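Known limitations

Files may contain more than one protein. Parsers should not assume a single record per file. Below, a two-record file is shown to illustrate correct handling: read the sequence, read the token line, then continue until end of file.
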Amino acid sequence: TLPTLTLSEVEARLGKPDVAVFDANTPELYEQMHLPGARWVKFNEVTAKVLPTDLQTTLVFYCSGVWCQASDEAAQAAVALGHTKVFVMPEGIFGWKKAGKALVAGP
């Protein structure tokens, strides 16, 4: 199992230069709402090309919520590619929204 981060732990890391946040939801949901600075990634097509070249960068993956496994699949791919600081935010975008945290719309 992958290590997890709480909503507050992710919020504290947003915008830091050594942190990359990835949204593993559908492109349509990503365009409706995503975390500030999050990049969309197709959960079952994670390659080195879409990830930071520095394997020490902290990677955070999320999808829709605790019932969704897309973020886990994407994160596992990052680990398989050699990344060592890989986390999942289990509450996902709907948990983030419910908590009243900042959201961004658009591509």
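...continuing to the second record:
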Amino acid sequence: MSEGPRYDGVAISLHWLIAALAVAVATLGLMIPEAPRGSEWRDFVLLWHRSIGMTILLAMALRML
């Protein structure tokens, strides 16, 4: 039985990068309700949650190209 076409190294790397970032953004998202409103910790978690989310969006768009 022959193997089908494989993805190149860039596509595989982007896939795993997006997967790792998705775990990170989900973890940060679960931390948000635990952080008290107005605290520096909550601001830090929200900043990283948004930044990683935008990075995922960019990486997915790059992968589509």
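Parsers that stop after the first record will miss the second one. For reference, the second record is described as follows. The helical segments are 9-31, 40-64.
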